[in-house]
Design a protein that fits this description.
90% helix; elongated; mainly alpha
Length: 93
């Protein structure tokens, strides 16, 4: 919890700079996850996974454009990175 609070404090100190880095990180991990999902096939479950990854990554980008509070943006960044990483790990194995 201490790590989360420290990262959140840094993020709140300079939200636009960290949001830019977050967009790059979220987009890169999301695109890798999408590529791995599509390499598995084009079935219903694959498309459901792809929908989840794309929706969450685009939701994070939308939260930055709408200029939500930094804490909400930071939490959505963590969610986006976690979901993309999870689907990467699921589809590598």
């Amino acid at each position: 919890m201490k790590l989360y609070n420290n990262l959140l404090a840094d993020f709140e100190e300079m939200p636009m700079g960290y949001s830019t880095i977050g967009i790059i990180a979220s987009s890169c991990l999301g695109s890798v996850a999408a590529m791995l999902i599509l390499m598995q096939g084009h079935g219903f479950l694959d498309m459901l996974q792809l929908f989840a990854v794309v929706s969450i990554c685009m939701g994070f980008n939308a939260m930055i454009l709408v200029q939500f509070k930094p804490k909400i943006i930071f939490n959505s960044l963590l969610l986006s990175l976690a979901v993309s990483t999870t689907f990467i790990l699921i589809n590598i194995i």
